[in-house]
Amino acid sequence: MAAASTLSLALTPTSSDPSLPSSRHRSRLFLSPLSHNPHFLSSQRSRSPPSVSDEPTSSSASAAYSSLEDWLKTGNYNFLSNEELLKLQSLQDFRYRRELGIGSLCIRVMRPDETDVTVKLLSESFVESMKLPDWYLPLVSYLVKQYLFERRAAIPHAVTLLGFVKWKDGGGGGGGGGGGEGELAGTVEICFNKRGANDSPPTPTPPKDSPYICNMTVNKPLRRRGIGWNLLKASEELISQMSCVREVYLHCRMVDSAPFNMYTRAGYNVVKTDSILVLLLLQSRKHLMLKKLPVPTNDLELEMSGSDPEHVQVGA
């Protein structure tokens, strides 16, 4: 598998306090999943560094989010409908577990107190894949943190997943995070519908009313161990539970053969490719890829996906 995916930043701050989600998700951070898009920082306005004084900092902070009530205290969720509250509960309960050669992998929704370790993983991935000098890292980290704060407003219509590995031999690769769950191995973002979509996604533009997988990266010491594949599978499993739409989109850079092969093996097909004119904007050409997930086959799966048999979009 290729090195970690690359970020594409386009930032337009919309609120003076990043701890309060904005009504419109104008801050945009895109990582074509395990692919590369070298467009960087198309717009930025000056803004004071994000305040995280309201974020838990102790190693046991994850215990603070053990209930839906505590989860709701971490964001502006006062106006969620009953259906959205049920989806929020489903997100909190979601677990994807697999046994790998190196140990046990658990993928779940990122908790608010895990923002810093996620920022570190994403920022280092961007700087590495773009071959930027190390002095870019603080700026990139600031932008990524701002993006993650503001994307909270999209929950439960979009969410960030984290994967943790608990090593068989008790060792580790230096990724940190996770506490008793193990070491942070990777992350991926999912947009379930139009309300969770970013205002300006990368080109070729995917339909905003369809699920979209993006911002995937794997901790460098843990690459080529099946973690990227399982992040993809976990994303598809969660989409099947959270959305009745079966068409799932993602981007892949044309030059990234290993990720492209992985997506093809997983059932994704190219539906559109960037024009050669994007090279004039110093961007790499990308494929937009599509997979049609299987239709739920029993009442339990239909109930979990919140869909009605007559309204399920049947894949060809």
TrEMBL record:
Name assigned to this protein: N-acetyltransferase domain-containing protein
Domain N-acetyltransferase: residue ranges: 105-294
Gene3D superfamilies in UniProt: 3.40.630.30
InterPro entries: Acyl_CoA_acyltransferase (IPR016181), GNAT_dom (IPR000182)
Biased composition (Low complexity): 1-22, 42-59
GO MF: acyltransferase activity, transferring groups other than amino-acyl groups
PANTHER family, alphabetized: ACYL-COA N-ACYLTRANSFERASES (NAT) SUPERFAMILY PROTEIN, GCN5-RELATED N-ACETYLTRANSFERASE 5, CHLOROPLASTIC
Membrane spanning stretches: none
Organism: Linum tenue
Region (Disordered): 1-28, 40-59
